[in-house]
Amino acid sequence: MEKQIKTQQENPNGLYNRYIVSKVSGEPVDKNADYFVLRLDEYGDDLEHIAACRKAIMTYAEEIKNHLPQLSADIIERYGD
After folding, report:
1. Measuring CA to CA, which residue among 81, 56, 57 is closest to residue 71?
2. Residue 66 has what pLDDT?
3. CA-to-CA distance for 65 and 61, rounded, in angstroms?
4. Are 41 and 50 spatial neighbours (Cβ–Cβ below 8 Å)?
5. Separation CA 78–CA 75 (nearest Å)
6. Section 18-42 average pLDDT
7. How far does Cα 25 stand from its chain's mean position?
8. What HEC string does 11-70 produce?
9. Residue 1 pLDDT class (50, 70, 90 cuts)
C-alpha cells in the first residue's frame, strides 16, 4: 500500500502538496502520477535550497543524457556551471 502525502497542517516543514501541476498544452497530466517541483532561478530567499534544486536538475540531466539527449543538453546549457 502506497503512503499518503501528509497535509501542510500535518507536515508544514516537510513533504506536502504545494503546487498544482498542469501541462501548457492543456492536455491532462497523469492523475496517478506524483510530480515534484524544483526552483531553479537564482532570485529566491533560500539560496541553499535553490542550490540543492540546481544540483538535482543537473543529476537528472546526466541520467537522461542517452535517453533524451536534447533535453539533457538544454538543461545543461541553461543551468550548468
Report:
1. 57
2. 98
3. 6
4. yes
5. 5
6. 94
7. 19
8. CCCCCCCCCCCCCCCCCCCCCCCCCCCCCCCCCCCCHHHHHHHHHHHHHHHHHCCCCCHH
9. low
